[in-house]
Amino acid sequence: MMVKHIILWNLKDEFSQEEKEYIKLSIKEGLEGLQGKIPGLIDIKVITNGLSSSTADLMLDSTFESEEALKNYAVHPAHQDVVNSKVRPFTMKRSCLDFEI
Which distant-in-sequence residues (6+ apart) come within 8 Å of 27 by Cβ? Predict the structure, then answer.
């Protein structure tokens, strides 16, 4: 069974709309840049262009070979580098849903 890992983030309110657009692109580039670098990561994409009706600023949609692969991704140094430099400093809310497909 493969595993989907979905994250929704809200960016901190202190950023202007222009800053938020830059931050979203930076997060997208960082996370999508992990493709091919982490064992068990099948697909990863970040959606940054939600409709005005959305209550989140961006979404991570990723697929893994297994739950074990997802656990390894979470602690992988390349992933941690992106999270600590491009995600955590700019986000205030994170929601996660992991499920088998």
Answer: 9, 46, 48, 58, 82, 86, 87, 90
Q: For residue range 73-97, list pLDDT tens digits in order.
A: 999 999 999 999 999 999 999 999 9
Query: In the structure encoding, which two tokens stand for residue 35, read together?
Result: 């493709």
- Name the residue among 30, 84, 23 with its Cα closest to residue 48: 23
Task: Give the SS3 label for residue 66.
Answer: coil
Q: Could you tell me the two tokens for 85?
A: 């430099």
Against a cut of 0.85, is the pTM above it?
yes
Residue from 78, 8, 7 nearest 38 by CA: 78
> Token pair for residue 55?
């209550």
The type of residue at 62 is S
Q: Is 34 exposed, middle or buried (0-12, 13-18, 19+ CB in 10 A)?
A: middle
